[in-house]
Write a structure and sequence with these properties.
mainly alpha; about 75% helix; DUF318
Length: about 325
């Protein structure tokens, strides 16, 4: 599908910059140019399609639908909803507040909050393009399972009292939008593409830049030795390194791609990606404004254990998915 882009990127490296493709700099530039253009194209197409579908389901209607589901069905629906909503954890928090205010059970809101930054339609399409459909599908399934189980556990703990009181007292207007025409839905979708790409492009460029540097300059033996599938502590280290950072799935996928290409275990790279997106320090700081420390601690513990298990699972079966 993107053979034309690979050809143009190679021409840029060899003809414009006068570099050998086998050189470290040439390899890094090719990685950066190819992945940047490819990801932006895939991202824009997927955002447009999902935004068009989403124009039929405004937030108020979505909250009313979700509130009807009980038990594990509700957690599954909330987790699936997280797939087609915001692209980073910090933008998920306002919707999380809206769910609490609307009376959606706390366990369901956490299923949404956990899944939303880890798995979304853009991350899926990029994983599909970079790693193939097997890894992309299994990643989505495990991300949803982490969200469902995390929400179930937190819901069973009855921790509603650890949500700040003012959140329950907020009054969010419930306004049903006017019926949109096809042209208005297209305009809405195009605007979403513009807004989202504008919001995440810096994270995307930084992530691809780091991935390009790893791809071209970091020796394979070094990463394979310390973060390969045979190192039992690699996944734990990856999660610990990911928590202080902040990005979204689109910014971390190129890094994961480069790490895997250098011999890092598939699960280790994906665990790092999930930790950055779901347990970032900025998200925890923002969450502190709406939930109390004890609930934050349990959120980190439950989500962290889920990510660790996912990392070890992918390290075990990763070779079957690539």
């Amino acid at each position: 599908m993107f053979n034309w882009l690979d050809y143009l990127a190679k021409l840029l490296v060899t003809q414009v910059f006068g570099l050998e493709m086998e050189s470290k700099l040439g390899s890094s530039i090719h990685f950066f140019v190819y992945d940047t253009i490819k990801i932006v194209i895939l991202l824009s197409i997927m955002i447009f399609v999902i935004s068009y579908i989403r124009s039929y389901f405004p937030p108020e209607k979505t909250k009313r639908i979700l509130a009807k589901f009980k038990g594990i069905k509700g957690n599954i629906m909330a987790s699936l909803l997280g797939i087609v909503t915001p692209f980073c954890s910090c933008s998920s928090v306002p919707i999380f507040i809206g769910f609490v205010e609307a009376g959606v059970p706390l366990g369901l809101t956490f299923s949404f909050l956990i899944t939303s930054p880890i798995v979304n339609e853009a991350a899926f399409i990029i994983l599909l393009g970079l790693f193939g459909w097997k890894l992309a599908v299994v990643y989505v399934i495990t991300g949803v399972i982490v969200g469902v189980l995390g929400g179930l556990i937190i819901g069973k703990m009855k921790m509603e009292k650890h949500v700040e009181e003012y959140v329950y007292k907020m009054d969010v207007a419930q306004i049903d939008p006017d019926e949109l025409t096809i042209n208005e839905r297209i305009s809405f979708s195009l605007q979403n593409v513009k807004d989202i790409v504008k919001r995440i492009w810096l994270f995307l460029i930084i992530g691809i830049g780091i991935g390009a540097a790893i791809h071209g300059w970091v020796p394979e033996d070094f990463l394979a030795q310390y973060a390969g599938e045979n190192n039992p502590f690699a996944v734990i280290l990856a999660v610990a390194c990911g928590i202080p950072l902040y990005s979204n799935a689109m910014g971390t996928i190129p890094i994961a791609q480069a790490l895997i290409g250098k011999g890092v275990g598939t699960g280790t790279a994906l665990a790092f990606m999930m930790a950055v997106t779901a347990l970032s320090a900025p998200e925890l700081i923002l969450l502190r404004k709406v939930i109390k420390p004890k609930l934050i601690v349990w959120f980190v513990i439950v989500t962290g254990i889920g990510i660790l298990l996912t990392g070890y699972l992918f390290n075990f079966i990763g070779h079957l998915l690539m």
